[in-house]
C-alpha cells in the first residue's frame, strides 16, 4: 500500500575477514535490492536511498519501490503496482525527486513530493521496453527498445547469447518528461541496451550492443542526440571483451576490458572473477576512461577480474565485487593496488543478487546487495578512514 511505513530493520555485524563494521539495512525475510550502479540508489545528501522490495507483495519477486532513511532506518512504500516494477528497469534523478520505471508494457513516472504517478508511454505489442535513464536537464527519458524475440531468459544468463543472435531490430527512443513527445533518435540491427545520458551534457548519451562480451564486435557507442549520429567508443579489436560502462560523476565514460575470451557473464558457478588471473592468453585486463568526445584519456592495467566497478568522484578509487568479497582498488598511482573491504558471500544466481557496489555521492558509504542469508538484502559499509 502506498504510504505504508515499516520500522527499522538495521543491524550491524563485524566482517569476518577485515574487522570492518557492516550495516545490514533490510532483514525481514523479503527480497530487496538497490538501483543499478548507473543510477545510484543514494539521493543527493546521502540521507536516503531508494530500493525495490517484494515485502508488500502477495508472492515473491513482485517488486515495488521503497524509500529508506539511513539514520532512522524507517521505510516508506512509494508504489503499489500489481504486476510489480520490472527488475532493473527503473531509474531516478540524483536528487530523488523523480523516479521512472517500467511495469508491464507501461513506462511510468512518480513525483516523490506528491507520490503522484503518471503513465508516460505504453509500448506496442512485439516490442520490449528497456532500462530508462533521465537526462541531466530532466527534460527527457531515454531508453533502448528492442523487438520481442521468443527466447526464454533466466538465471545464470540463460538465453543471453541466443537473444543476441535473434534480435535484429532495436531503437533508441526519447520520451518527454510529460509524456507528450515520443521519438526515435536511432535505429539499429542489433540488440541495444545500457542507454545512459551524460550527467553533464543532456545532448550526449551512450548505449551498447548487448550480448556476450567476446561475441559483440563493438560494445560502446557514443550518441549525439542532436545529430542522431553514433560513433564507436574504443574501437574494439578481435581480443577485446568490453562491458559495464558507465558515466562518472565528472562526465567521463568508464569501461572494463576483460580481454580475450571473456563473455562477461556472472553465475552461481563462480568461475568468472577472481584475483587469480584466469586469462591464459597472456593478455592483461584493463579499465579505461574516455572524455565526452570519445577520446581515451587514461588506461590502466587491472588484472583483478572484479565483476562490476564503481568509481569515486575523482576516479582515483574503485569499489569492485570479487567472487566472495568487496574490494577497493586504488588507481591514483601508475599501478593499481587492491585491498579487501568486506565479504559479501552472494550467490550470483540472478541479476537481483548481484552486489553492484555503489559509492554514495560524498563517497563516504558503499551500498551493495547480497543473498548471503537466503533472501536478497541491502548492506552499507563506510569507507575506511
From TrEMBL:
Residues 3-384 form the Oligogalacturonate lyase domain. This is PD40 domain-containing protein. It comes from Ureibacillus galli. The lineage of its organism: Bacteria, Bacillati, Bacillota, Bacilli, Bacillales.
Amino acid at each position: 500500500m502506498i504510504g505504508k511505513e515499516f520500522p527499522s530493520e538495521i543491524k550491524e555485524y563485524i566482517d569476518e575477514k577485515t574487522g570492518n563494521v557492516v550495516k545490514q539495512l533490510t532483514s525481514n525475510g523479503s527480497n530487496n535490492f538497490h538501483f543499478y550502479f548507473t543510477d545510484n540508489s543514494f539521493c543527493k545528501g546521502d540521507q536516503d536511498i531508494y530500493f525495490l522490495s517484494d515485502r508488500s507483495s502477495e508472492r515473491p519477486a513482485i517488486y515495488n519501490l521503497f524509500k529508506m532513511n539511513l539514520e532512522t532506518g524507517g521505510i516508506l512504500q512509494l508504489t503499489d503496482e500489481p504486476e510489480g516494477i520490472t527488475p532493473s528497469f527503473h531509474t531516478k534523478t540524483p536528487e530523488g525527486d523523480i523516479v521512472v520505471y517500467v511495469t508491464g508494457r507501461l513506462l511510468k513516472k512518480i513525483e516523490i513530493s506528491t507520490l503522484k504517478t503518471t503513465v508516460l508511454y505504453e509500448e506496442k505489442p512485439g516490442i520490449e521496453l528497456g532500462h530508462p535513464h533521465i537526462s541531466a536537464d530532466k527534460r527527457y527519458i531515454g531508453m533502448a527498445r528492442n523487438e520481442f524475440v521468443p527466447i526464454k531468459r533466466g538465471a545464470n544468463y540463460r538465453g543471453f547469447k541466443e537473444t543476441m543472435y535473434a534480435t535484429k531490430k532495436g531503437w533508441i527512443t526519447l520520451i518527454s518528461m510529460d509524456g507528450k513527445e515520443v521519438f526515435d533518435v536511432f535505429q539499429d540491427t542489433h540488440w541495444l541496451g545500457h542507454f545512459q545520458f551524460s550527467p553533464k551534457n543532456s545532448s550526449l548519451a551512450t548505449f551498447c550492443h548487448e550480448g556476450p562480451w567476446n561475441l559483440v564486435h563493438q560494445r560502446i557507442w557514443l550518441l549525439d542526440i542532436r545529430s542522431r549520429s553514433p560513433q564507436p567508443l574504443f574501437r574494439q579489436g578481435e581480443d577485446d571483451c568490453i562491458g559495464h560502462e558507465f558515466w562518472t560523476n565528472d562526465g567521463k565514460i568508464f569501461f572494463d576490458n576483460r580481454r580475450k575470451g571473456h563473455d562477461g557473464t556472472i553465475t552461481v558457478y563462480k568461475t568468472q572473477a577472481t584475483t587469480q588471473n584466469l586469462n591464459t592468453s597472456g593478455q592483461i585486463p584493463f579499465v579505461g576512461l574516455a572524455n565526452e568526445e570519445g577520446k581515451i584519456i587514461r588506461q590502466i592495467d587491472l588484472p583483478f577480474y572484479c565483476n562490476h566497478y564503481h568509481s569515486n568522484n575523482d576516479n582515483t578509487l574503485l569499489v569492485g565485487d570479487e567472487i566472495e568479497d568487496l574490494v577497493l582498488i586504488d588507481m591514483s598511482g601508475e599501478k593499481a593496488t587492491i585491498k579487501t573491504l568486506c565479504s559479501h558471500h552472494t550467490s550470483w544466481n540472478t541479476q537481483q543478487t548481484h552486489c553492484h557496489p555503489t559509492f554514495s555521492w560524498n563517497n563516504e558509504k558503499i551500498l551493495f546487495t547480497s543473498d548471503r542469508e537466503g533472501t536478497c538484502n541491502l548492506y552499507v559499509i563506510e569507507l575506511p578512514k
